[in-house]
Automatic annotation (TrEMBL), chain B:
SUPFAM superfamilies: Sigma2 domain of RNA polymerase sigma factors, Sigma3 and sigma4 domains of RNA polymerase sigma factors
Cited Gene3D superfamilies: 1.10.1740.10, Winged helix-like DNA-binding domain superfamily/Winged helix DNA-binding domain (1.10.10.10)
Entry keyword annotation includes Transcription regulation: yes
Gene Ontology molecular-function annotations: DNA binding; sigma factor activity
Organism from which the protein derives: Defluviitoga tunisiensis
Top-rank taxon: Bacteria
Pfam families, sorted: Sigma70_r2, Sigma70_r4_2
Name of this chain's protein: RNA polymerase sigma factor RpoE
Alphabetized InterPro entries for the sequence: RNA_pol_sigma-70-like, RNA_pol_sigma-70_dom, RNA_pol_sigma70_r2, RNA_pol_sigma70_r4_t2, RNA_pol_sigma_r2, RNA_pol_sigma_r3/r4-like, WH-like_DNA-bd_sf
Record GO biological process: DNA-templated transcription initiation
Gene responsible for this protein: proE
UniProt keyword annotations, A-Z: Sigma factor, Transcription, Transcription regulation
Domain RNA polymerase sigma factor 70 region 4 type: 124-176
Family (UniProt): Belongs to the sigma-70 factor family. ECF subfamily.
Domain RNA polymerase sigma-70 region: 21-86
């Protein structure tokens, strides 16, 4: 990726450019970037629900 | 309900308000904890964060946004867990003991999250890529590119100067881009 494309991609991440202003390569890269980080940081709803029930049963720490 | 009324409701131990707070923040906090905490301890850590929120809400004076205050608690709890793992690794080995001990820190890659979540890309590849970033880099990416926080909020949460947040995030994004390209995913 050349410097111009890289800057374009970084500007897009910072909201300085819209998706339709990106070239195909940057669009693909941005899409992949967001899918990857969203997948990595995704949460297990089972765990979230389990903790919620524990807190509710303790009346939210009362 | 505006922020002020919402905080008041939390201070009055309003169960409904806590449920709203939990539903909004638990998934976000989970992502932060995943950065620091062993998979089998995330549940305890998540509970600890909310207990700290519940117990500390009466001391919340509104000097920062409620979300910033909550994120700070989550990062602190995560870092405490992470520090305790470092101590375990540094613990001197007891040569007289017959008990087998595991001195290694369990990598995030042993988590049981859905492996097929990324459609066409193997989940292990995602882990291999993300684990080449350090914890601070991953945290900045999470806070900015997933949760959409401002640079100022991130600086407040991480206790880093604003310029450092910007430059570190810039470097982290470029590093992640390079890793994606090197993995031939594009």
């Amino acid at each position: 990726m050349n410097e111009k494309n890289e800057q374009m991609w970084l500007d897009y991440l910072d909201g300085l450019l819209k998706e339709n202003q990106l070239n195909d390569y940057c669009k693909k890269l941005a899409n992949l970037y967001y899918r990857l980080i969203n997948c990595y940081f995704s949460c297990e709803s089972n765990t979230v629900e389990k903790v919620k029930h524990k807190l509710v049963s303790q009346k939210y720490g009362r | 309900m505006n922020d002020e009324k919402f905080i008041e409701a939390l201070k009055n131990k309003d169960q409904k308000a806590f449920k709203i707070l939990y539903d909004e923040y638990a998934p976000k906090i989970y992502g932060i904890l995943k950065n620091y905490v062993r998979p089998n301890e995330i549940e305890d850590a998540l509970q600890e964060v909310f207990l700290r929120i519940i117990r500390g809400i009466n001391n919340f004076e509104g000097r920062s946004k409620l979300s910033t205050w909550i994120y700070r608690i989550a990062v602190n709890v995560g870092k405490n867990y992470s520090r305790s793992y470092s101590k375990e690794v540094e613990k001197p080995m007891d040569l007289d003991s017959d008990e087998p001990e595991n001195f290694s820190v369990q990598p995030i890659s042993e988590t049981n999250v859905k492996k097929e979540a990324f459609n066409d890309i193997n989940y292990q590849i995602i882990l291999n890529i993300m684990e080449q970033l350090d914890k601070d880099e991953r945290l900045l990416i999470k806070l900015r590119d997933i949760d959409g926080l401002s640079y100022n909020e991130i600086a407040e949460i991480t206790d880093l100067p604003l310029g450092t947040v910007k430059s570190k995030l810039h470097y982290a994004r470029k590093k992640l881009k390079k890793l994606i390209e090197e993995a031939n995913l594009i």
